[in-house]
Amino acid sequence: MILLINTDLLVIGGGPAGMTAALKAAKKGAEVIIVERYHELGGQLIKQTHRFFGSKNEQAGTRGIDIAQGLTKEIQNMSEIKVLTEATAQGYYEDKIVTVSYQNKFRKIRAKRIIIATGASEKMMLFLNNDLPGVYGAGAIQTLMNLYGILPGKKVIMVGSGNIGLIVSYQLLQAGVEVKAVIEADSEIGGYLVHASKIRRIGVPIYTGYSVKSAIGESFVKGAEIIKLDRNWQMIAGTERFIKADTICLAVGLRPLVSLLIQADCAMAYVPELGGDVPIRDENLKTTNDQIFVAGDAAGIEEATAAMLEGEIAGLKAATEIGYLSKDAITESRRLKKELRKLRNGPISRNIRKGLSKVRGDDNVKKNRYSHLR
Amino acid sequence: MLRKTGIPTSDDLQSVTPDKERLLEGPVAIIECFNEIPCDPCFYSCPFKAIKKFSDINDKPELDYSKCTGCGNCIASCPGLAIFVVDYTKNRLSLPYEFLPLPSVGDKVWGLNRAGKSICQVEVIKVRDPDKNDKTAVISIKLPKKYLMEVRHIKVGDPNE
Amino acid sequence: MRINKHPILDFNRGKKITFQYKGQEIKAYQGETIAAALYAAGIKVLKKSNKYQRPRGLFCAIGNCASCYMAVNGIPHVKTCITKVKQDMVVEEETGKGDIID
């Protein structure tokens, strides 16, 4: 049995961007369906026990878990929003229909506008035995530890000193796990220095200019061999050292999950600053497919605060285009864009700004390099 | 160097520490926030408007030492847990703490420096964990004067464990 | 190993249930995923790679990768990291590539 559901707006992904997008559009009157793969809304927010940065007006100082809870409640209270959990969007078809597997059935959803907020997947890193159980993505560690209250191990080596690596290290310490070291290939710490200082003063060493050469163990991690890197990130032979651990946590970056966007033939651009292939879009997050918007990490890897603002901007514009006009839509959209600009204005966002300059405007529109695969 | 190790240098610290005269007057906040990141809750937390309003949210916080009373309201507001209050008149330090078990008043615990090394025993003299702090407790400790600008974390129990 | 006390989080675990893994009875809590329950029980190797028979465990735990596929109630290729565990579920290590079932 294949069911066809009609709606105004389909939001794919119920993380921070998807939630704010759905809420914004629904508040303007649009009928919204959120399709979420997991069994609850919130995306990665539901694992973030730390207080968020950003503007106090945009929930800074609030823990991620509490932001997720607040948004989820708000969504549950809106009759305009229907949430399908444990539902996976499978494909986008030429007749502008999205197929979704839900409760062991294949459904079709036809929406006037679609916002793709599918988030990101973790990057893998090349080293010997990297497939050994005990080598986990940072998100997996957060899932086990912060959602289910299960310790991933007793001694952890963290690979990557970006915000995720530093924050997850702190969360491991809070759960009572020993963090043996944070390993960073670059010559400097990647994340916010306050996060680095926070784990350093608890006694976690941060090795910059180091990488993992191999994971040691037969059927499970027993440690890692780390090695010093030269300026060009080449391993320096003879500098290996062994660190005993039962877990190697990889926090080496995220890649936007864009398969649906590619399939929908949205023009894409490879932008390393944003984590990989991302869709070309305008200031309202509209892609080159007139029906489709993007928001959050699927548009480029950034903090959740930015994702939530992007969701609002896309949701507002989508609602307007569907026909839910409101007097204040223009000023509201301007305000949101201004907030987002302010957030990205600092030196820490230099790369984001550089990346964003590559995905806007007609000059950049290249042919979807996956088009031939369709 | 801070960007390599996570440990602020003395130059870094000097830029956020008031002069000796002010230190000797009474408690004052030390905001160990050294890079420009988009964040402003500390400004809203200060009841005395001692933290300057951010003209750009990415600015580093700027504290007016003459207005700061050392009340410590800002400590738990900082998402980076980077704010401490030192009091040279009473040899006290207040710091944020998000670990279990929480120490109790009178406990002797270990004082850790910015590199995580235990450098002295300290006495817990106050534990503030109100609901509004949302699980970031503020612990005040008494310790030798020479460690007031050194100790930045505490460890309950065996320091070598 | 389960966390009982946490400085920030309260774990409101669901009802205690049991399920089967390789003929063994495993304890779990309602609401958690199969992979999480197995992990808590100390089972961290979930399958073997097809070609070289190398051990495989969790990797992403959010349903992106294929590292946690197992056969659940006879259905192959179940992403155990996003599938909730249920009373009396039969979870098996997957062998081969799985068959299409009716």
Describe what this molecule looks like in 3D:
- The complex is a heterotrimer of chains A (374), B (161) and C (102).
- Chain A is α/β, with parallel strands linked by helices.
- Chain A is built from nine helices and 19 strands.
- Chain A has helices at 16-27, 64-76, 138-147, 163-174, 193-200, 259-263, 304-322, 329-343, 350-357; strands at 3-12, 32-35, 81-84, 87-92, 97-102, 105-116, 120-122, 135-137, 155-159, 178-184, 206-208, 210-216, 223-228, 241-244, 247-250, 254-256, 268-271, 276-279, 292-294.
- In chain B, strand 4 and strand 5 form a beta hairpin.
- Chain B has one domain (2-155).
- Chain B has 161 residues and is of the alpha+beta class.
- Chain C has a single domain (16-92), classed as Ubiquitin-like (UB roll), CATH 3.10.20.440.
Number of helices of chain A: 9
Please state roughly what percent of the residues of chain B sit in beta strands, choosing from under 5%, 5-15%, 15-25%, 25-35%, 35-45% or over 45%. Answer: 25-35%
Could you say which overall geometry of chain B the principal axes of the C-alpha atoms support?
A: globular
What is the averaged pLDDT score of chain A? 94
Following the backbone from N to C, one meets helices and strands of chain A in this order, namely EHEHEEEEEEHEHEHEEEEEEHEEEHHH
CA distance, first residue to last residue of chain A: 26 Å
- Compute the number of structural domains of chain B: 1
**How many runs of DSSP E, i.e. beta strands of chain B?**
7
* Biggest sheet overview of chain A: 7 strands, mixed
The overall pLDDT average of chain B reads 96
Radius of gyration of chain A: 21 Å
Compact summary:
Chain B has about 160 residues and is of the alpha+beta class.
Task: Write the topology of this structure.
The complex is a heterotrimer of chains A (374), B (161) and C (102).
Chain A: E1 3-12, H1 16-27, E2 32-35, H2 64-76, E3 81-84, E4 87-92, E5 97-102, E6 105-116, E7 120-122, E8 135-137, H3 138-147, E9 155-159, H4 163-174, E10 178-184, H5 193-200, E11 206-208, E12 210-216, E13 223-228, E14 241-244, E15 247-250, E16 254-256, H6 259-263, E17 268-271, E18 276-279, E19 292-294, H7 304-322, H8 329-343, H9 350-357
Parallel strand pairs in A: 1-2, 1-6, 2-3, 6-19, 8-15, 9-10, 9-15, 10-11
Antiparallel strand pairs in A: 4-5, 5-6, 7-16, 12-13, 13-14, 17-18
Chain B: H1 2-5, H2 10-14, H3 20-25, E1 28-31, H4 41-45, E2 83-87, E3 92-97, E4 108-113, E5 118-128, E6 137-142, E7 151-155
Antiparallel strand pairs in B: 1-2, 2-3, 3-6, 4-5, 4-7, 5-6
Chain C: E1 16-21, E2 24-29, H1 34-40, E3 47-48, E4 55-56, E5 69-72, E6 75-79, E7 90-92
Parallel strand pairs in C: 1-7
Antiparallel strand pairs in C: 1-2, 3-4, 5-6, 5-7
